Structures are given as structure tokens and as C-alpha cells.
Amino acid sequence: MSGADIDLAKLRGQVVLVHFWATWCGPCIQEMPALETFYEKYKSKGLEIVALSEDRTRDIDDVHHMVHHMNMNYPVAMAHTAKRNSFGDQASLPVTYVLDATGTVRAEMRPDKLPVTVENLEKVVSPLMPAR
């Protein structure tokens, strides 16, 4: 949202959560406190979250408001301006991809399969964290 580029290749060596969401998505908003709590606990230990909003360009003010209101302290970008690489278009939201330090996708978290909760993040992400 700041205009700076986010390059996943430059985040190698860190565990990265790529989180697709939207302001109009109720389950997305429900997940945000867990993401923020987990990020605050692990950001100094090699965790990064990149949140990609699927909102339309005309809704960018809503995205800015949500980022501020939900205290999203990790990078947020608009998905429509992102190069998707192998993530493609998302059929449903939210979805969070867990990438290990080599950039390999290790898990896909969705509300109907593996919801984003602090407990699930601990189970899935913590074992991937680099030793420090």
C-alpha cells in the first residue's frame, strides 16, 4: 500500500505467509487478529506476511481503512497489481499459503480445511521457522 515493491524472492531465508483477502469477506476479517498476533510473536524470528487484497481499485480507500482499523502491521498490497507467479486467481477467500525459507509452499490454509487460527499457525508455521 506504500507503493514499495514486494519481491518474494528477496524474502528467501524467511518463512512467508501469502494471505489473499478482501474487505467484504467476513471470514477474512475473522482471521486478521490471529495473523496479527502470530506476526507480532514471530516477525523478529524470521516470519513475514504479505497480504494481497482482492478488492477492486476503486475500493482502495476501504482497504486503507481496514489496514488501519485491524492494525495490520505487515505488508499489504492490491492483488490486481501483483504478478501472481504460481498463485493464480483465487476461487474463494480467504486463503493463506505458507512458504518455507526456500520459498516452497508447505501448506494452504482455508476456513473449510485448515483455518487460520493462532493454534493452527503454531502447528503449521512454527516448525518451519529458522533456528536463531
Give a structural overview:
The protein is 26% helix and 20% strand. The protein is α/β, with parallel strands linked by helices. The protein has one domain (12-127): Glutaredoxin (3-Layer(aba) Sandwich). The chain has a five-stranded mixed beta sheet, covered by helices on one side. Helix 2 (60-69) links the parallel strand 2 and strand 3 (76-78). The longest helix is centred in the N-terminal third of the chain and has 17 residues, at 26-42. It is globular and about 40 Å long. The N and C termini lie far apart (30 Å).
| Count of distinct strands | 5
Query: Largest sheet, order of strands side by side?
Result: 3-2-1-4-5
CATH architecture: 3-Layer(aba) Sandwich
Class from secondary-structure proportions: alpha/beta
Q: What is the subunit organization of this protein?
A: single chain
Summarize the amount of helix as a percent range. Answer: 25-40%
User: What spatial form do the alpha-carbon principal axes imply?
Assistant: globular
The domain tally reads: 1
The secondary-structure element order is: EHEHEEEH
Given this structure, which CATH class is correct? Alpha Beta
Give the uncertain stretches in residue-range form. none
Number of helices: 3
Strand content: 15-25%
CATH 4th-level superfamily: Glutaredoxin
Task: Look at the structure and give the mean pLDDT.
Answer: 87
Cα distance, first to last residue? 30 Å
- Report the biggest beta sheet as strand number plus sense, adding barrel if it closes: 5 strands, mixed
CA radius of gyration: 14 Å
CATH topology: Glutaredoxin
